């Protein structure tokens, strides 16, 4: 719909009127059909100079409104990557991949049985240069569609392994977990690439774990098993990420060369208030331990939750409670503080 002279009317009011009109069941062939609707607003000339741009941006605002479950939203040019639509992001990503304008952040993971063994998860960031960055959840799917994912994964792996070599020179030997995409586990060149990296930087493969989501592993389990078994032979560990969100069959799972299961945040967050989720988490811990796998709980934001998860047998805890993702300088500071506290404990004993 085009509104002329929107300043003379209240847009919110206008949309609410239309929405209340639409908010009645429609009877189609004797069936009552309930409609829901969401509106997106873009203004001319602030948000675009032609009809195509205005339409695109009102669509972006409509999706934003759906995401935050609001009845409508007005386009916000400053809202980070929401400023760009998918086509623009794909073109920008192409340029970012050419110059590898990415950054790795590291989130610490608490190892319950050995708190002195530091583990990080490497998480990619794409800074746009204006203080905003695009979240991996937004650009990894685009990279998967445009085949840029292979170069991105190679960059993440090389940056991680090179960083492990730098830390080793400082007598620091943390473990790092790296995320793989569904395309990577169909890629026969991944294992030879990894083998070359580990030998070029003389890094102990035991310091590296690769995370594969449950959903991506289940897309082509036979192929995944072949690729993962080769990687495992290098001495690298393997973890199933976002466990519980896919539909793994237990028989497939028990045949995969997996060392670790990461229980998805959606089951962990409300564990203390949801008896269903608590039952799921407890039985996943039992299942994983019977398959000789470690269990990581993701998304642990409070001490109470962390302690409870430790009490029911989680081997590793990851979440804002223990530490947020940090850039390299912050990670280095974190590592040296941890070294100092280990030193203190050692000198007390
Ligand atoms: P993931 O592998 O499950 O990573 C955990 C995500 O949860 C990260 O989001 C992390 O910042 C966030 N997180 C950690 N602790 C908490 C917490 O206590 N509360 C909440 N609310 N969130 C927490 P991030 O960095 O935005 O990454 C999102 C996803 O993007 C990752 O989910 C992973 O699937 C993907 N990803 C990240 N880096 C890479 C990469 O280098 N390659 C590939 N292929 N995917 C990546
Ligand atoms: Mg992960
Ligand atoms: Mg996860």
Overall description:
Helices cover 46% and strands 17% of the residues. The chain is of the alpha/beta class. It folds into 2 domains: 6-79, Reverse transcriptase/Diguanylate cyclase domain (Alpha-Beta Plaits, 2-Layer Sandwich), CATH 3.30.70; 93-348, EAL domain (TIM Barrel, Alpha-Beta Barrel), CATH 3.20.20.450. The strands form 3 sheets. Strands 5-6-8-9-10-11-12-13 form an 8-stranded mixed β-barrel, surrounded by 4 helices. The protein has a two-stranded antiparallel ribbon with strand order 1-2. The longest helix has 21 residues, at 149-169. It is globular. It starts with 10 loop residues before the first helix and ends with a helix.
Lateral arrangement of strands in the main beta sheet: 5-6-8-9-10-11-12-13
Order of helices and strands: HEEEHEHEEEHHEHEHHEHEHHEHEH
Residues in helix, %: 40-55%
| Alpha carbon gyration radius | 24 Å
* Average pLDDT: 89
Shape: globular
Number of strand segments: 13
CATH topology assignment of the largest domain: TIM Barrel
The helix-and-strand class reads alpha/beta
Q: Helix count, per DSSP? A: 13
Q: What small molecules does the structure contain?
A: ligand C2E, magnesium ion
Q: How would you name the CATH homologous superfamily of the largest domain?
A: EAL domain
Give the N-terminus to C-terminus distance in angstroms: 74 Å
Segments where pLDDT lies below 50 for 5+ residues?
none
């Amino acid at each position: 719909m085009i509104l002329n002279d929107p300043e003379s009317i209240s847009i919110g009011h206008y949309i609410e009127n239309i929405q209340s009109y639409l908010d009645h069941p429609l009877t189609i062939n004797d069936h009552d059909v309930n409609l829901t609707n969401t509106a997106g607003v873009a203004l001319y000339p602030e948000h675009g100079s032609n009809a195509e741009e205005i339409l695109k941006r009102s669509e972006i605002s409509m999706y934003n409104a759906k995401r935050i479950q609001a009845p409508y939203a007005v386009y916000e040019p400053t809202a980070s990557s929401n400023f760009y639509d998918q086509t623009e992001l794909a073109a920008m990503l192409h340029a970012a991949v050419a110059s590898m304008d990415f950054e790795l952040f590291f989130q610490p993971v608490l190892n319950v049985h050995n708190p002195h063994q530091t583990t990080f998860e490497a998480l990619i960031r794409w800074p746009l240069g204006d203080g905003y960055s695009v979240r991996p959840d937004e650009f990894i799917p685009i990279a998967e569609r445009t085949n840029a994912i292979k170069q991105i994964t190679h960059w993440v792996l090389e940056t991680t392994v090179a960083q492990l070599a730098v830390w080793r020179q400082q007598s620091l030997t943390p473990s790092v977990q790296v995320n793989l995409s569904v395309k990577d586990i169909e890629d026969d060149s991944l294992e030879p690439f990894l083998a070359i990296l580990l030998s070029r930087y003389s890094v102990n493969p035991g310091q590296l774990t690769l995370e594969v989501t449950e959903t991506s592993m289940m897309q082509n389990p036979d192929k995944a098993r072949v690729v993962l078994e080769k990687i495992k032979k290098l001495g690298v560990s393997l973890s199933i990420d976002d466990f519980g969100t896919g539909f793994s069959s237990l028989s497939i799972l028990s045949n995969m060369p997996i060392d670790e299961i990461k229980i998805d945040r959606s089951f962990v967050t409300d564990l203390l208030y949801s008896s269903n989720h608590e039952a799921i988490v407890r039985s996943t811990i039992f299942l994983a331990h019977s398959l000789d796998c470690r269990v990581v709980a993701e998304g642990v934001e409070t001490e109470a939750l962390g302690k409870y998860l430790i009490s029911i047998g989680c081997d590793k805890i990851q979440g804002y409670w223990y530490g947020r993702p940090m850039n390299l300088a912050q990670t280095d500071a974190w590592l040296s503080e941890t070294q100092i506290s280990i030193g203190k404990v050692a000198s007390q004993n």
